[in-house]
């Protein structure tokens, strides 16, 4: 297995949501999809997670088509099943019933065994003033790095 250290981050997720809890989950992928993930052809635009029949699925996660897939290609934005334990699923299903909580994908990576994994977060939507605080904090950190570096 190749250890390409693929790590694709969903930057807007931490800006739009206050993340309360995180989990790492497996993703059910086809052969051409895992090759596209290893090529870092992943986009998180408007992607989110939802429960269907007690299982967690991710919607709108774009995984680009693999060039050499031939006839065995895949739909770039199909729903993909996430793999978690029953205990984790039940815990998070109860938490999202609370007002304003949603499950957002934070990043996709390939672990040392070569499997694609996704880190998901239980987030609460930020208000405008919270976003301003995030911008201010980021700018201060950038200034500090500029003066130290």
Protein topology:
Blueprint: E1 7-9, H1 11-16, E2 17-27, H2 31-38, E3 42-43, E4 48-52, E5 55-59, E6 62-63, E7 80-83, H3 86-96, E8 101-110, E9 116-125, H4 128-148
Structural notes for this entry:
The protein has a seven-stranded antiparallel sheet with strand order 1-8-9-2-7-5-4. A two-stranded antiparallel sheet has the order 3-6. It is globular. The chain has a single domain (7-148), classed as Small protein B (Small Protein B, Chain: A, Beta Barrel). The N and C termini lie far apart (38 Å). It is an alpha+beta fold and 149 residues long. The chain has helices at residues 11-16, 31-38, 86-96, 128-148; strands at 7-9, 17-27, 42-43, 48-52, 55-59, 62-63, 80-83, 101-110, 116-125.
How many individual helices?
A: 4
What proportion strand?
25-35%
Q: Which residues sit in consecutive blocks of at least 5 with pLDDT less than 50?
A: none
Distance between the termini: 38 Å
Strand order of the largest sheet: 1-8-9-2-7-5-4
Order of H and E elements: EHEHEEEEEHEEH
Helical amount among residues, as a percent range? 25-40%
């Amino acid at each position: 297995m190749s250890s390409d250290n693929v790590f694709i981050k969903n930057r807007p997720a931490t800006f739009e949501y206050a993340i309360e809890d995180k989990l790492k989950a497996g993703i059910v992928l086809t052969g051409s999809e895992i090759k596209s993930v290893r090529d870092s052809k992943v986009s998180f635009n408007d992607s989110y997670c939802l429960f269907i029949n007690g299982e967690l699925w991710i919607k709108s996660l774009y995984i680009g088509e693999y060039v050499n897939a031939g006839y065995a290609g895949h739909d770039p934005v199909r729903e993909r099943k996430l793999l978690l334990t029953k205990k984790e699923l039940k815990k998070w299903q109860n938490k999202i019933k609370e007002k304003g909580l949603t499950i957002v994908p934070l990043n996709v990576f390939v672990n040392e065994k070569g499997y694609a994994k996704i880190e998901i977060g239980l987030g609460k939507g930020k208000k405008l003033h919270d976003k301003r605080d995030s911008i201010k904090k980021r700018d201060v950190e950038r200034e500090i790095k500029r003066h130290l570096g």
